Amino acid sequence: MRVLGLDVGDRRIGIALSDETGTVAQGRGVYIRQGGEEDLSYFVELCRREGVEKIVVGLPLHMNGSEGEQAAKARAFGEALGARTGLPVEFLDERLTTVEANRVLREAGLREQKKRRVRDQLSAVLILQAWLDFRRFKSA
């Protein structure tokens, strides 16, 4: 099963796709947001082209577990994309994925400019891989 993982931000959306077996998340770049319909159309076409069967969207919850403005925006985007594609959408608590992505990039010794280019993609990979691992663990 091919799964699309998204880290939805106001300016950029990090993209990850699973392999066909739904085991490993792979980074697929960062989409620079154009706004509304253009954003949805891009991801509808990506889902069609890649044979995506499910979408996982990171939900940036507050540390106390409540949803704030950014979580509401991510949820709204995921629901709109699900409605447009007809695909099931799941939301995954993404607290601390950006912190983890920054740690990995710092340890890799990347310069700040390079970090900015890959941070959102890496966050999407971490979100999707966590979902894939949880799904595999749950079914074991």
Question: Any overview of this molecule?
Answer:
51% of the residues lie in helices and 23% in strands. The protein is of the alpha/beta class and 140 residues long. It has one domain: YqgF/RNase H-like domain (Nucleotidyltransferase, domain 5), CATH 3.30.420.140. Strands 3-2-1-4-5 form a 5-stranded mixed beta sheet, sandwiched between helices. Helix 2 (69-85) links the parallel strand 4 (54-59) and strand 5. Helix 1 (36-50) crosses helix 2 (69-85) and helix 3 crosses helix 4. The mean pLDDT is 91.
Secondary-structure map:
Elements: E1 3-8, E2 12-18, E3 25-32, H1 36-50, E4 54-59, H2 69-85, E5 89-93, H3 97-107, H4 112-139
Parallel strand pairs: 1-4, 4-5
Antiparallel strand pairs: 1-2, 2-3
Helix pairs in contact: 1-2, 3-4
Task: List the keywords.
4 helices; 140 residues; alpha/beta; Nucleotidyltransferase, domain 5
State the gist of this model.
The protein is 51% helix and 23% strand.
CATH level 1 name: Alpha Beta
Q: Report the total helices.
A: 4
* Rg over CA atoms: 14 Å
> CATH superfamily, please?
YqgF/RNase H-like domain
- Count the E strands: 5
Q: Fill in the CATH topology.
A: Nucleotidyltransferase, domain 5
How many structural domains does the protein architecture include? 1
The N- to C-terminal Cα distance equals 17 Å
Question: Low-confidence parts, pLDDT < 50 over ≥5 residues?
Answer: none
Percent strand: 15-25%
Structural class: alpha/beta
